[in-house]
Prior knowledge:
Elements: H1 5-34, H2 37-103, H3 112-127, H4 153-158, H5 165-175, H6 183-191, H7 195-209, H8 221-231, H9 237-246, H10 264-277, H11 287-297, H12 302-315, H13 326-342, H14 344-352, H15 358-366, H16 375-388, H17 391-403, H18 405-410, H19 414-422, H20 432-442, H21 448-489
Helix pairs in contact: 2-3, 7-12, 8-10, 9-10, 10-11, 10-12, 11-12, 13-14, 13-15, 13-21, 16-17, 17-20
Amino acid sequence: AVVSTQSTGELIGRIDVETRPYLCKEIAEEKHTEEPFVPRQRLQEAQDTIASYTAQNRLLEEEIPQVNSLRYEERKQYHQVKAELDKINNHYMLLLREINKLRTGAETTISRDLQEIAATLIEQVKDKDLLDVQQIGNDFTHRYDRYGFEISKLSAKVGVGCGPEMVWEKHIVQFGNDFAACKELKALVRAGVPHKYRSSFWRACISRITAECPGRDEANLYRSLLAQADLADHNNIFTKQIELDLMRTLPNNCLFNSTTATGVDKLRNVLLAFARYNLEIGYCQGLNRIAAFSLAVLNLKEEDAFWAVVAVVELLPPDYYSQTMAGAQVDQRVLADIMADKYPRIMAHFNHFKIDLSLITFNWFLTLFVDNSNINVVLSFWDLFFYEGDKVLFRYALAIFRIYHDELLKLRDGIEVYNFCRGIGDAELCTPENIKKIAFGELNPFPFEKLAKRREYHLRKVHGEMDALNQARTQYNAHKRSSILDCDSD
């Protein structure tokens, strides 16, 4: 059928009117469904990301302990390998020394060339850092610790106390390796300095103590002092006394126990240099042990050991190592006062047998326990001495007497007391842990101000006694001269 134009237009209009509501509704629904679609997709993506990070975090939590465990095993293996290498190095060193001995013998099957090579190698080894001596001994050799000391039963049983390396590593990462004074470091030092960090810790402390000392910033000061010592009169009293004391110094240490030992020449150099550096003191017995122990711990570095001796003299009161030793005498009287306050029963026991406390403890203070205690105690003391100062002398001495308080009271004559105290530092209970528990626990508070006042009081008394003695000596000499003149006139 043919539809007219009008009819067609009407039809289209009618369809448009009838379908528009439905089209608008559909468009509206489409818009309504599209608008929330985008945020929901993003939310899903975020949730997926969170789930991914959670899974990664869970994986890391599982892997971190495994990595730490592997790290621990690697460190353990490293130390085992290092110990084996040190053992081989020390066997090598012993072999070189034996070959070197043959060079002075009358006959040997070793060729001259090999002897000269051995001598050269020995000189090279001397210039290196001190080797850890961990040799397994036999009938002809001794066992020595890393610092060259013979390993005693106590040392082997207890071991040298030291703090955990991990804690020290964290401190160094956080605060640096200059070991600036702080509460955290003080607690670490009292807990114990690990072998790994001891030499660097000492150097930092020594540098701080000697920062204002003359010549500290001069690069060639030590070599200059040695050159002056070489030009000086070799017959002077200090040089002679140093030579006499070299073989008396640390006879239980392989570095100093013979004229050909590695450390003897270095010890001589350090003492001669100090005698030229501090003309007021020059040389005093006791300094040889201070210098030798410094060399042993500081890897045979002469200049480091020299400044260690300077630091010790700086930390102690004046006249400790002078001809009169007035400072050392004062400290013995101060110690006797504190002993009477803290442990009156021991002092009453000593007085009953007419025992002079200073005959026991004078050498403790003069050599900083090097001569009188096992290596464990000496190392822990020196760690604290360099960090906290000379007050630690009194803490350690008092703690040692406290440990053996009851045993001392059981002794029934002066000879027994002296014999017991001679070996008290090597006794089984004399460990760094036992000493520090008392020194920094039971003895607290231990104010330095009170110690300083006691020192001032006794210093006046000592000076007064010395003045009286000098006056009496002067009068005696004058009277003697007068008598001689009278005899001559007759």
